[in-house]
Specification:
2 helices, 54 residues, alpha+beta, 2 strands, elongated
């Protein structure tokens, strides 16, 4: 089974250009992802601050 770790960062506006330059120097490839989020009829996952993404 594959696991995914998603990191999200808040970047100060003054540093956005520097971060873009740094990221653009890396070798990477772009891929398109599609996701569907599901929950129980009673929204139990949302109530537990959790999500199931397929």
């Amino acid at each position: 089974m594959a696991y995914e770790i998603e990191l999200k960062f808040r970047i100060p506006a003054a540093r956005v250009a520097a971060v873009r330059r740094a990221v653009n120097t890396l070798s990477a490839r772009q891929i398109r992802l599609a996701a569907r989020y599901v929950d129980t009829p009673g929204q139990d996952l949302a109530a537990a601050r959790s999500a199931l993404r397929l």
